[in-house]
Write a structure and sequence with these properties.
The protein is an alpha/beta fold. It folds into three domains: about 90 residues, Fumarate Reductase Iron-sulfur Protein, Chain B, domain 2, CATH 1.10.1060; about 140 residues, Rossmann fold (3-Layer(aba) Sandwich), CATH 3.40.50; about 120 residues, 3-Layer(aba) Sandwich (Rossmann fold), CATH 3.40.50. About 45% of the residues lie in helices and about 10% in strands. The chain contains 18 helices and eight strands. Strand 5, helix 14 and strand 6 form a beta-alpha-beta unit.
Length: about 400
């Protein structure tokens, strides 16, 4: 559920929609497909016929396909004049698909995999720290049980996907450079559960939340740092609702924590002569309200010429990688990423920085497909490049 939500039920919310069409303006799905049935208001209208007007509450396979064609980017919620929490609306619709056994196989396979493996891949969860093998020397404190002030919650994509593995390597090296007393959960880290929310499996996330929170509390952690915006959003906005109380520790996106280390003088960047632009991840920016920290990091590096993409901050365009869209319609996800990378290329920047491992993967794939001379990096990777000896 989005921050500050007044959401009630599918039926109630579908009746609130006034069909003004504000939601269509920035919707990446509608902008790509062009069909009214692919727009947020079109989907809400169909839902109204089913759930508010008593048409049997059965979701057709055609409507189910439209429901999965969404990145959960939040642009529709931001533009909604009636203040409908449309992201929660989509989650509930996807929950109906699961109940009626018409969800795509990618959804059901992912849910079963998360239940058995505790991560989104087929790898054993005990291998979550294999990315550390890319370091010259693996820190001894990387998976200690207690005594650390800071815990780095790595996330599934950075733990198991080779390209994204360079993000935790950079983060850990920055923490070491700043002499932070940190650790990770190692093989005890379970998926944050955000993919379950995006698939409509709200009940299943409770086990993940309770496990992760208790583990952090037992370790005596004071600050949790995550480089995944979806993990950050889930820990900050979903877990407290599930647990029913405050977590007892601070939760920061890595960009926020790195800004603190820069302000304390624990990290001192050297000059980099580069033109850099920045892509706002949906779950960090529009859905969590964090815009300044990544930009502060870029502006702290001497020599950086920072240029904004025309659509930025709250108006940033999705990379196509959210909302489980890749599993449901990979071609559509790639088409959205193509639009975004072409927009970024028009800035003339040589480096496109984001603060999300999924954005980095989607945009790098698009840049290669378009043969663009544009390097894609995470903000932590760029900062490490500026501070390493």
């Amino acid at each position: 559920m989005s921050t500050g939500s007044f959401y009630k039920t599918l039926a109630d919310e579908s009746l609130i929609c006034g069909r003004c069409g504000n939601c269509r303006r920035d919707c990446p799905i509608y902008q790509e497909l062009g069909w009214e049935s692919a727009s947020p208001r079109g989907k809400i209208s169909l839902a109204r016929e089913i759930f508010a007007r008593g048409q049997g509450e059965t979701v057709s396979p055609e409507f189910a396909e439209r429901i999965t064609q969404c990145t959960m980017c939040g642009a529709c919620t931001k533009n909604c004049a009636a203040r409908i929490d449309i992201q929660t609306f989509w989650q509930d619709l996807r929950g109906k698909m699961l109940e009626q056994n018409i969800a795509p196989k990618a959804y059901t396979a992912m849910i079963e995999n998360l239940k058995s493996k505790k991560n989104i891949t087929n790898f054993d969860n005990i291998t979550r720290l294999d990315w550390a093998e890319d370091m010259d020397e693996v820190p001894e404190n990387l998976a200690q049980e207690s005594g650390a002030e800071v815990a780095y919650f790595v996330g599934c994509v950075s733990s198991f996907f080779p390209r994204a593995a360079q993000i935790p390597v950079a983060v850990v090296q920055l923490l070491q450079k700043a002499e932070v007393n940190f650790t990770t959960m190692g093989g005890e880290e379970w998926c944050c559960g955000f993919p379950l929310l995006a698939a409509g499996a709200k009940a299943e996330i409770q086990q993940f939340a309770k496990h992760n929170v208790k583990k952090m509390q037992d370790m005596g952690i004071e600050i949790i740092v995550t480089s995944c915006p979806s993990c950050y959003h889930t820990w900050n906005h979903v877990y407290p609702e599930i647990i029913g109380e405050t977590l007892g520790f601070r939760v920061l996106h890595v960009s926020q924590y790195l800004v603190e280390l820069l302000e304390q003088g624990k990290l001192v960047p050297k000059e980099l002569t580069e033109t850099v632009t920045y892509h706002d991840p949906c779950d960090l920016g529009r859905n969590s309200g964090v815009y300044g920290a990544p930009r502060q990091i870029l502006q702290s590096i001497p020599g950086i010429d920072f240029v904004e993409i025309p659509t930025n901050s709250a108006d940033s365009v999705c990379c196509g990688g959210g909302g489980n869209l890749q599993g449901a319609d990979g071609a559509l996800a790639d088409a959205i990423a193509k639009k975004r990378i072409l927009e970024a290329a028009q800035t003339g920047a040589g480096i496109l920085v984001s603060a999300c491992q999924q954005c980095e993967q989607m945009l790098e794939k698009a840049a290669r497909a378009e043969k663009l001379p544009l390097q894609i990096m995470d903000v932590s990777e760029l900062l490490w490049l500026a501070v390493e000896d």
